[in-house]
Amino acid sequence: MTDSAARTRSGLILVLAGTVVSAASSFIVLLIVAPALGPAGYAQFSVYWAALFMVVAVLFGVQQESTRAVAAAPATDEDDPARGPLTSVLAFALVVAATLLVAVGASSPVWSEALFGPGAGGWGFPLALAVASYALVAATNGILAGSGRWGPFSLLAVIDGALRLALVALALALGLDGTALAWAVAIPFPVSLAIVVLGNRRVIRARAIVAGTPGRLAANTARTLAASVATAILINGFPVFLSLFGRTDAATLGAVILAVTLTRAPILVPLTALQSMLIARLSAVREGRGRLLAAVLGIVAALTGLVAAFVWLWGGPLLARFFGEGFVLSSATLAGLVAAAGALGVLTATGAAALARERHTAFAAGWLAAAVLALALLALLPLPLEARVVIALLAGPLLGAVVHLAVTRDR
């Protein structure tokens, strides 16, 4: 095995391990909060959680562009005049973070209680801290991914997830109120960032400098953020739109939202975690990009088929056992939702390929086309909710993938 292959394999293992810990921590948080707070309290908490991680999903665009820019930039002397204009990814992220901190924090008294419910007027302040900190987390992750530093990249996710679980569990054990829980969810972002940056400050500082002007970095990031808005709609925020366009009873809506969440996890959690690694690999490798993308799409298809077969055979009984008979959907619906998750996986992979080729407009266009078509089908099709969701989440992402492939195929 070559040194490059060994580093890639080691990085893959580290990223997957970090993803497992982070995802498991988040899942356990939701499991322990629900019975502790009851339906009304959990409703408030879940809205706060969804709002926070929807913004996080949008800011993931900062990480994507940072990864691409750092991976494409040689690690040479920043004072070398031959390099042309240079920009600091961290300086750019600091501007984004400061803007978010002021905008969200200052405006939160106006909307916080209306959004999160009675008694939640102060929840906008931990939300402001969390999203501002995540702008810096995203840039730091991009620097680490773009320079192949998968150890600290994974460590940041592990510390963040484990600390959030510990703080939430402590707040529940002490019987603290919802405001304390909001802070418990937010604090891990700046703390995990500080720990990782202090331990890797030299490499982060050295690789934070990328080619191009601040305006170019801002423009590229803006297009990536536009795509991230669509990503947030299709993934993190989709339950909100299910509620808006559901046209069904509350029990069916709840069952569909749970099924969408559970069927996506086996495919999208690892693929999303590996997205920065994929962007870095596709950016660094000029020849054979098409073969690498085809291999990734083949893996997504194979995994989708396996998970779909599993839920077709055992999905219903497992839902009944762990969540109750009221959450059981047909085998066809569950398998269809897995296929829809696979379509989102395809869109994620083709989007990474578009970014690697610096086709930022096409990257955003693909995701936006997917979101628009999915929401239109969900809202307009005269079908039961289960069928509308499956069709919307299949057709939208596949259209977006076609847009990406049209401009990223090797010529």
TrEMBL record:
Keywords: Cell membrane, Membrane, Transmembrane, Transmembrane helix. GO terms for cellular component: plasma membrane. It is found in: Cell membrane. Its main location: membrane. The chain crosses the membrane at residues 12-36, 42-62, 89-111, 123-146, 153-174, 180-199, 225-245, 251-271, 292-314, 334-355, 362-383, 389-407. It is a multi-pass membrane protein. The keyword Calcium does not apply. It comes from the Bacteria. The keyword Cell membrane applies. This is Polysaccharide biosynthesis protein. The lineage of its organism: Bacteria, Bacillati, Actinomycetota, Actinomycetes, Micrococcales.
